[in-house]
Write a structure and sequence with these properties.
With about 80 residues, this protein is mainly α. The chain has a domain of about 45 residues. It has 3 helices and no strands. Helix 1 crosses helix 3. It is extended and about 50 Å long. The chain starts with 9 loop residues before the first helix and ends in a 25-residue tail after the last helix. The model has no long low-confidence stretch (mean pLDDT about 85).
């Protein structure tokens, strides 16, 4: 059996980083509590400190006309 790769939302990562940087928990404590490999947290902290780990802005809705074909077959 192969293990499925987990993905984490940016909000999840930021909460984990916050718990380490602000609350003083260790990465091992946070990883254990949130059930993920605590070694991931070190790269999340680095990205946070570099300013590259931030919440994604909300995506604008996709206009209805983009869901249709390119107009092929229409006169």
């Amino acid at each position: 059996m192969s293990r499925r790769k987990r993905t984490f939302t940016t909000d999840f990562k930021l909460e984990a980083v916050r718990r380490v940087l602000e609350d003083g928990e260790t990465p091992l404590q946070v990883g254990t509590a949130l059930e993920f490999d605590h070694n991931l947290l070190y790269s999340w902290i680095e990205r946070f400190e570099a300013g590259t780990l931030s919440p994604m802005p909300e995506r604008p809705p996709i206009p209805d006309d983009m869901d249709e074909e390119d107009g092929e077959g229409e006169d």
